[in-house]
């Protein structure tokens, strides 16, 4: 009892001292972007982050103005361009959540500011934002508007932190090195390097390309999905290949953005480009892309000029960009042997060749997966077998184009007696037809063939090996005789 009394008296005596110790503790370092809002109590949901609307970044000897738009952040000056989404994400994250590590000097002198590199700052960022209320609103409320200017100086070599000062606050703070990395950005770092914009095949109507080795014109078909080559010859175009080519082109990153002037264009050879391409969109102004190459210090240097209406962008890119559109007719051509919509097929006729009767397989009405083999020895066809056959026919690809617009097919073994497959729709209209001809001389594993197009092509024998020729190829085999066919006793 005596001991408890002593302890209680001691705690009562220490109370004022302990309170004074807590009062003497320095306050936690403030956030970079001070909003004046109270910190939420422990356990309470976090306060909504400020919504930044405008930034002025002075760094790397230039001033960059940026603004948030419904489509994302954009540079307003020194050029008008889309901002780099990843760079902006890192910058805004530091502004909205980073805190100073410590207070370095609460009342610095001019000599101190010079020592910290703050009389001639490395970077200055002025950020404007608004604070959402509990409902996420308040963008137009003047009382919720905030503007903060941060000035960054030298790096502390001891721990990599950076000296920072805030406008209206005399103190010098230390901020983590990540703050400097995110905020110390010039126009090039802040700008989106993928400058060519979206070149989506689905949004284009035509393409005309003149390159070093090849020139071609492509047009969208009336169905809105397929493409055709108009020049140098008329044929179906390889749409997946075109889509991939445009994606690779649009993904090219600028290595630099030279000033776009008439003198610069002439010096870089863009008045006589190596590649000159024109893309006509379904809607909107056409896009023209020119590429040229010069030699510097014995190395090729490639520049691309993108023009659309009154807007233009000049950029240096990797040398390989020069070859992306320089593709020949063999790459441009559709390599599918047969072109048809699988769901439209309701009847297949498999002609084994010679005078043999065809094997006919028909599909039930609607979207039924029930297939029936017609004729003697027929019956219900195995659904998985039909799926496999249609996939095989749809997947046939040309090994090589031989001749366009053939006048005489007989020398290649393509006649009325050839092995062939005919695909028809519900009304009996022909959707596609495959003719299989002779073996290519000196190439036993390759056959001449004729498909949906007018060209003579070559097809690997392995692609044709499993095309059915008998009704039994579609049917489930009969069950084995349990007694092995032994005579009855």
From TrEMBL:
Ranges for region Disordered: 29-49
Ranges of residues in domain DUF4340: 73-273, 371-477
InterPro entries: DUF4340 (IPR025641)
Protein name: DUF4340 domain-containing protein
Source organism per UniProt: Corallococcus carmarthensis
């Amino acid at each position: 009892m005596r001991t408890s009394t002593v302890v209680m008296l001691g705690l009562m005596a220490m109370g004022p001292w302990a309170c004074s110790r807590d009062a003497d503790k320095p306050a936690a370092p403030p956030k970079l972007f001070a909003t004046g809002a109270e910190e939420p109590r422990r356990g309470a949901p976090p306060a909504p982050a400020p919504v930044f609307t405008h930034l002025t970044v002075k760094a790397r000897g230039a001033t960059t103005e940026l603004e948030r738009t419904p489509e994302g952040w954009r540079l307003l000056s020194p050029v008008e361009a889309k901002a780099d989404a990843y760079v902006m994400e890192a910058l805004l994250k530091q502004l909205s959540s980073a805190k100073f590590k410590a207070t370095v000097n609460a009342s610095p002198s001019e000599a101190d500011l010079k020592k910290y590199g703050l009389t001639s700052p490395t970077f200055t960022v002025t950020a404007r934002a608004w604070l959402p209320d509990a409902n996420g609103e308040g963008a137009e409320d003047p009382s919720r508007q905030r503007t903060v200017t941060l000035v960054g100086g030298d790096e502390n070599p001891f721990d990599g932190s950076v000296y920072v000062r805030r406008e209206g606050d005399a103190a010098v703070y230390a901020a983590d090195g990540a703050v400097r990395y995110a905020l110390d950005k010039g126009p090039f770092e802040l700008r989106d390097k993928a400058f060519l914009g979206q070149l989506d095949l689905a949004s284009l109507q035509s393409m005309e390309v003149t390159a070093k080795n090849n020139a071609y014109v492509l047009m969208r078909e009336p169905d809105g999905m397929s493409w055709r080559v108009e020049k140098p010859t008329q044929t179906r175009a390889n749409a997946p290949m075109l889509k991939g080519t445009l994606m690779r082109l649009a993904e090219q990153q600028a290595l630099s953005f030279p000033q776009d002037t008439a003198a610069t264009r002439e010096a870089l050879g863009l008045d006589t480009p190596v590649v000159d391409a024109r893309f006509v969109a379904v809607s909107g102004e056409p896009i023209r892309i020119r590429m040229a190459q010069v030699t510097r210090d014995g190395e090729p240097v490639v520049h691309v000029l993108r023009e659309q209406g009154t807007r233009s962008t000049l950029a240096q890119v990797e040398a390989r960009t020069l070859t992306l559109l320089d593709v020949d007719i063999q790459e441009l051509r559709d390599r599918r042997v047969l072109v048809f919509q699988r769901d439209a097929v309701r009847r297949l006729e498999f002609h084994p060749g010679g005078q043999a009767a065809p094997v006919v397989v028909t599909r039930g009405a609607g979207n039924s997966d029930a297939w029936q083999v017609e004729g003697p020895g027929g019956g219900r066809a195995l659904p998985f077998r039909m799926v496999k056959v249609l996939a095989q026919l749809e997947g046939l690809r040309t090994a090589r184009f031989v001749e366009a617009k053939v006048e005489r097919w007989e020398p290649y073994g393509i006649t009325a007696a050839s092995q062939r497959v005919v695909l028809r729709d519900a009304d009996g209209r022909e959707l596609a037809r495959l003719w299989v001809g002779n073996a290519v001389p000196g190439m036993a594993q390759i056959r001449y063939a004729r498909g949906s197009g007018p060209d003579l092509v070559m097809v690997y024998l392995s692609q044709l090996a499993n095309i059915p020729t008998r009704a039994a190829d579609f049917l489930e085999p009969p069950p084995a005789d349990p007694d092995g066919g032994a005579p009855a006793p």
